[in-house]
Amino acid sequence: MATYTQGLAFTIWEPPEMRDFLTSLQPAYRSPSPYQLGGPLLDNNFSTMKSNIDKIIEKSPRVDLIIDESATIAGNRVINVSVHTTSGVFFQETS
Question: 16, 7 in Cβ contact below 8 A?
Fold first, then answer.
């Protein structure tokens, strides 16, 4: 989950130092591969997070939309949409 919520690269767990660190905490632990992080684990965690956020939005007494425009690194204009609730702000989409 930390990989996704913190925006870490899927390869973060591959360097020997990181594997040694994780092994020192739990010798039997095998860190996930970038393929697993970008595939089945991502799909599963996305579904879990979306379900949790949907419940927060549904229970919130008030919901505000935050819409702004920005540019990508390539100079393309995009619209960013976030949802503000009493529990915090959640990014919705970029189009």
Answer: no
Same domain flag for 14 and 44:
yes
Per DSSP, the residues of 16-83 read HHHHHHHHHH-TT--PPPHHHHHTHHHHHHHHHHHHHHHHHHHH-S--EEEEEEEE-TTS-EEEEEEE
Q: What is the pTM of this model?
A: 0.60
Which tokens is 54 given? 């949907």
Q: Are 7 and 52 part of one and the same domain?
A: yes
Q: Give pLDDT tens digits for 30-58.
A: 888 898 888 888 888 888 888 988 899 89
Q: Are residues 43 and 68 in the same domain?
A: no
User: Closest by alpha carbon to 32, among 58, 1, 73?
Assistant: 1
